[in-house]
Specification:
Elements lengths: L4 E8 L2 E8 L5 H6 L9 H23 L6 H7 L3 E6 L4 E3 L12 E8 L4 E4 L11 E2 L11 E3 L8 E8 L26 E9 L10 E6 L4 E3 L12 E8 L4 E4 L11 E3 L10 E3 L8 E8 L6 E10 L10 H23 L7 E3 L5 E3 L1
Parallel strand pairs: 3-10, 11-18
Antiparallel strand pairs: 1-2, 4-8, 5-6, 5-9, 7-8, 9-10, 12-16, 13-14, 13-17, 15-16, 17-18, 19-20
């Protein structure tokens, strides 16, 4: 039987495995009868193959063993999760990365604790809950496994886990009886990190009692409504006015004929400021208003305002300043003259009438 050698270099996922297959003869006699020389393998080819093996082993070692998540060892020791607080409507970065950001783990997962099922759910960018809201950075930095979540809701709060995965199989050769026994595969040593995310929602500053506000026609009024934490942003909010005829709440729109160019909001500058400013007031603007916010917990909140709009008080008739001055001077002269005549009777002027009817000074 012909003795031949077949050397196959297999490249798979940047790992190289060199497999050598040697076909042994059926018997030593047949091997002795074979007179064909072994094929010559150039030294350069052997060197190249050997170097490929070394590079593959180094790369594989770096890739599988080089990514031990930052702080995961300390976390295992302390048995604590990293606490992060964020606000509804905002974004949050859940950090998870290898010491070398260019080191790529065989695999990794992000999961969130499901308290109802007492299990962890995979976070998928294709799920309804996270579609268009989550982002990874491994394309630009293979070792950066951090997760960015945008447009946060109250349901996003919970415990998240970033875990490095891979093939943890163990191959034991040249088995002996002593090799028998129980073996344990501890995936935790590969590295994982728990993060506890708390999402603060908008809660209105309200005493629960309707607020009475008075204003005058032609003027302006601000109905103050805000979240207790100015950094929080509600899922949605609206201003409504009670239609007493229909007994229904109607949403106030800046595009409606009644409020066009007369209402203004402030949430663009401060997300937690939901106040409403109404200008050029009319008597029809009086009534019951409601600041209403939506919450993902299905427990909406609102504040009620009762606005009274009346005509401004009548002002006194306008009197020219010159006329007032003249009247004032006449009063001063009269008072001075009266005072003088009462203190010096000799200077008083008396009129007497003679027989001829001619008046003379006395």
């Amino acid at each position: 039987m012909t003795v031949w050698y077949d050397t196959i270099a297999v490249f798979e996922d940047a790992d190289m495995v060199l497999r050598t297959v040697i076909m042994k003869p059926d018997s030593e006699d047949s091997a002795a009868q074979n007179t064909e020389p072994l094929p010559f393998v150039p030294f350069a080819l052997v060197t190249v193959i050997f170097l490929h093996i070394i590079v593959a082993v180094v790369y594989h070692t770096k890739r599988t063993k080089g990514c031990t998540l930052e702080n995961s060892a300390q976390q295992l020791q302390d048995n604590k999760a990293l606490d992060i607080t964020a606000h509804t409507g905002g974004s949050v970065l859940l950090p998870c990365y290898c010491p070398d950001l260019q080191t790529k783990p065989e695999g990794f997962t992000w999961k969130k604790e499901n308290t109802k099922k007492k299990d962890r759910d995979d976070i998928s960018i294709n799920s309804d809950q996270y579609r268009n809201r989550v982002q990874l950075f491994t394309d630009s930095s293979p070792g950066n496994l951090s997760l960015l979540i945008s447009h946060l809701t109250e349901e996003d709060g919970g415990v998240y886990q970033c875990a490095v995965t891979g093939n943890l199989s163990l191959l034991i050769s040249h088995l002996t009886e002593e090799d028998g026994g129980d073996y344990k595969c501890d995936a935790k040593k590969r590295g994982y990190r728990d993060i506890r995310l708390s999402v603060k929602a908008c809660s209105l500053e309200s005493s629960g009692i309707p607020l009475n506000i008075s204003a005058h026609t032609g003027g302006s009024v601000q109905l103050s409504c805000s979240c207790t934490d100015p950094h929080t942003k509600p899922m949605g909010f609206s201003w409504r006015k009670l239609n007493t005829t229909r007994n229904t709440w109607e949403e106030i729109s800046r595009e409606s004929d009644q409020y066009r160019n007369r209402v203004q909001l402030f949430n663009c500058d401060s997300p937690g400021n939901l106040s409403l400013l109404i200008s050029h007031l009319t008597e029809e603007d009086g009534g019951e208003y409601q600041c209403y916010i939506e919450r993902s917990t299905h427990n909406p909140e609102h504040i009620v305002f009762i606005l009274s709009v009346t005509d401004p008080p009548q002002s006194l008739p306008f009197v020219p300043f010159a006329l007032v001055t003249v009247i004032f001077l006449h009063i001063v002269v009269a008072v001075v003259y009266h005072t003088k005549t009462t203190k010096d009777p000799a200077t008083a002027v008396r009129y007497s009438s003679d027989g001829d009817g001619v008046a003379s000074l006395g």
